[in-house]
Amino acid sequence: MRAHARYELLEKEGSCYLGADGSILRRRVQGKSSDTFLILRAHNLGLGTLATVLAYAVYNVVYAAVGWPAGILSDRLGRRGILVAGFALFALVYGGMGLATGALVVWPLFALYGLYIALTDGVTKTYITDLVPATQRGGALGLYAATTGLMALVSSVLAGLLWDHVSPAAPFYLGGMTALGAAVAVGLLIPRRPASHA
Predict the structure, then answer these.
(1) Which of 7, 103, 110, 170 is most buried by a 10 A CB count?
(2) pLDDT by residue (tens digit) across 73-86?
(3) CA 60, 63, 187: angle at the middle one, nearest 5?
């Protein structure tokens, strides 16, 4: 049976599968990372295996290219504005993936997703070290890692249920709305310039 036909058959059975290197690998969405949902959605929208891999490569290239300049920009302009912009980009990407009806839009959305990661990944951790005393930074970063890991698990299970029982677009609508809420919360509740700590 051809790979494309096998993908369609398996997808209809209620689980999500992704073709990689020409074969079909079972990759149920529950408990997986958000990147997996993006890949599955790209395939769901019509991108073939090679195109999906290349689109994901675009995300990685943008992330690698922008990560360092984003850190420099946060030093000059402040962390909060960079984080707000990053979360707003996430909302745009997930909203776009939810609304998308064809594969063409996947390419710019993956590039914007790389920009989101570049704006938030390192900057978030740096901002945490800005907010706490030097003697508590290790514990604060550990708590951050534990919390984000737990929330990633919960959100991935929920997103998987939405994918299987509502629609492939549903996890992206939820993710977009929560990211927009996060952008508003960071903009309103977190201080622009945290007090310095020795």
Answers:
(1) 110
(2) 999 988 889 999 99
(3) 140
